[in-house]
Amino acid sequence: MSIINSHTLKNKINKCNLIPLEVKSIKTTNQIELNINENEFLEFAKNAAFTYVYYYLTYYNQNDYIIPKGWYSEYSEEFKAAVAQHNRLLESFDFDAPRSLTLFIVQNGTYIGIIQENLWIDEQGISKAEDTIEEIEREFYSEVKKINDFQKEQQKEDENELRQSIFQDPEFRFCKNQERRYWYLVELLEEPEMKKYKYLVEPYGAPHIGKIKLFMDKTWMLYKERQN
Q: Where are the domains of the chain?
């Protein structure tokens, strides 16, 4: 069942000599949900001489369903076509259509109202971006595995290259604690020729926890082994 939009809803409430007030969220444990429709509820609020009718609308977020380009840019044209088909379908939908409407009044601290839902995207069997990309990846398993294997090998090579640069730096011998090693790498990765290695330790975390800490702990251990 489709749900009335905000503009039409406010006009409808005003015609009942009631004042519509939109709320950002509902946080209450004292609530009564009535088993009546929208028109019956407004008639009830009007006859009970209430002044305000509160409403809360929710919507689907298109960004939760559209697959970003960065998730599939390295894949084949066939893979990209499958993603494009999914994204085009989503772009044809009206995400301004409400997902749910809560209409209520407040009496002695108790929320009294009705809830309408229109789970239109769920009813069409459309999953969020994360689930959809996983489904497509399963269809293209061989291709995905090949690319993942290549990326893992590339990551190993980049890790070795970064560590070799660190080992060759005479200043690194002074980084005898996690704090110094953390800031050493942060500053090193800001150098133009070293920025390509940032992805290896992102997100950085803090000196005593995070990806930089893990990377530099191993780097320091290997460095000390080389010195013996």
A: 6-138, 143-223
DSSP state of 191: S
Residue spans of beta strands (DSSP E) within the chain: 19-22, 31-33, 52-58, 100-107, 110-117
Entry pTM: 0.69
**Which stretches does DSSP call E strand in 59-198?**
100-107, 110-117
CA distance linking residue 225 with residue 103, whole number of Å = 68
Instruction: Report CA-CA distances (Å) from 182 to 157, 160, 168, 179.
Output: 21, 18, 17, 5
* Residue 53 burial (C-beta neighbours within 10 Å; 0-12, 13-18, 19+): buried
Question: Which tens digit of pLDDT belongs to each residue from 29-83?
Answer: 889 999 999 999 999 999 988 999 999 999 999 999 999 998 998 899 999 999 9
Parallel, antiparallel or unpaired: strands 110-117 and 100-107? antiparallel
